[in-house]
């Protein structure tokens, strides 16, 4: 890690990596040790910590660490570190390691907004990305002192997920979505009945978050439209928060105009109350229930599929089906694919409440050309990568 105040957060990232069974060598810069001392890193990693190329010279650490690593992650990566990495400077053990690494490299910048937005930093980031380095977009929030803005180190738990994703893909890890802007929706919308109650659904947003995280790990610029999701923001992702289907509609339609791909993983409500009570609806003395009239919401997937503001945008929909007297899950899904006009439809059999809130998923990915790809039971991240594989082919 480099010398930024966010170095203390890297302790949590290191702990997660070691506790999940990974062998971690900590390579700080000298300035990083001004924020968190070497004994802390040594205790958490179980290995001695050095900053220069003169320690353990007989083991040639400035070459061996990079040569033998499966992943190099720098968190935090300061503006100075980004500049050195972009220009091939090697004046300490960390920058030497970056030059010798032939494995995937993940850089997680953290700095003040003005430094992140400076033309020199932007040019350095562009150079690194052009070489296949995954530079994670910093988060927005509280910075050093009273300042707030973009430049905050993403949540360590989410950085850990990025690292696990890249490691899991190994040699197959690529930045095939670099230079692409993708939009992902997640969660379930809520339609208010009164100041207290709403109509909603059981979507947790986990699949949408997995899609956003996976796209960011493949180099995409990702905007996540999150409807009532209680999960940490994925690292490197811009999050737009909405509540109702109307808000989801407006956000997705606006973003679709500049998107290379839109994946509608959210569960928007099909209906909303025709009127919202300004006061809490009370129980009646006679025990009768109030009548609630519903009106239909806009069909977001149909609109962005049939009225594409940007030709060539790949549109992906989700279908949560249970099957009924009119047809099986796949029969209903194929009819929906034809009706909606999207390029891909990810079909979940949600009979008995399956999928919702779970870390795992299984699906069938139907394509407009008639093809189908079965995705066996596995993690939602694994399904996300299958979906992005299909999207990348069409892009």
From TrEMBL:
Residues 1-181 are annotated as: Phosphopantothenoylcysteine decarboxylase. SUPFAM superfamilies: CoaB-like (SSF102645), Homo-oligomeric flavin-containing Cys decarboxylases, HFCD (SSF52507). Residues 177-393 form the DNA/pantothenate metabolism flavoprotein C-terminal domain. Pathway: Cofactor biosynthesis; coenzyme A biosynthesis; CoA from (R)-pantothenate: step 2/5; Cofactor biosynthesis; coenzyme A biosynthesis; CoA from (R)-pantothenate: step 3/5. Catalyzes two steps in the biosynthesis of coenzyme A. In the first step cysteine is conjugated to 4'-phosphopantothenate to form 4-phosphopantothenoylcysteine, in the latter compound is decarboxylated to form 4'-phosphopantotheine. Catalyzes two sequential steps in the biosynthesis of coenzyme A. In the first step cysteine is conjugated to 4'-phosphopantothenate to form 4-phosphopantothenoylcysteine. In the second step the latter compound is decarboxylated to form 4'-phosphopantotheine. In the N-terminal section; belongs to the HFCD (homo-oligomeric flavin containing Cys decarboxylase) superfamily. In the C-terminal section; belongs to the PPC synthetase family. Its cofactor is Mg(2+); FMN. Residues 182-395 are annotated as: Phosphopantothenate--cysteine ligase. It comes from the Bacteria. Its EC number is 4.1.1.36, 6.3.2.5. It catalyses: N-[(R)-4-phosphopantothenoyl]-L-cysteine + H(+) = (R)-4'-phosphopantetheine + CO2; (R)-4'-phosphopantothenate + L-cysteine + CTP = N-[(R)-4-phosphopantothenoyl]-L-cysteine + CMP + diphosphate + H(+). Residues 2-165 form the Flavoprotein domain. Keywords: Decarboxylase, Flavoprotein, FMN, Ligase, Lyase, Magnesium, Metal-binding, Multifunctional enzyme. GO terms for molecular function: phosphopantothenate--cysteine ligase activity; phosphopantothenoylcysteine decarboxylase activity. Binds 1 FMN per subunit. This is Coenzyme A biosynthesis bifunctional protein CoaBC. CTP binds at residues 270, 280, 318, 336, 340.
